[in-house]
Fold this sequence. Notes:
Layout: H1 16-26, E1 41-47, E2 50-51, E3 55-61, E4 68-72, E5 76-79, E6 88-95, E7 97-105, E8 113-119, E9 132-135, E10 142-147
Parallel strand pairs: 1-10
Antiparallel strand pairs: 1-2, 1-5, 3-4, 3-6, 6-9, 7-8
Amino acid sequence: MRGDHPIRTTLAPLSPPVALAALLLSLPGCGPAPDQGGVAVTGQVLLDGQPLDEAHITLIPESSGPAVTGVVQGGAFRIPPSEGPEPGPYRVEIDAVRPTGRIIEHPDLLGQTAEETENIVPPRFNRASTLRVEVGDGGDNHFEFAVTTR
């Protein structure tokens, strides 16, 4: 092995049309259009007959793809197409976490305390949810959910 000869690499110059194409493809806005998301989804969530506030609704695809989450305010939710799901079947989870007013030992930090919280929506509507929807390829994707604590 010789240590006195550096390795040299020679690149052939690009032809003007190839160089121009490479430059244009590297600029923002060039190339294929980004995925525009899915479809809009709207709806209403009632808890014991009253509009649910400060909650989240999650649509989990039954086959493949990402889950989609929206905020529920005043019982209503709207997920725009840019953040919406692709058409298909989804399992629905509804969560509304609230403080209980109790101070408890922090579950992760030894010797620390934390405010206890609980999900006011029962597990049968979130972790163990059997709620299902079919999101269509357009049109009216409006869903209404009446969940109960009893």
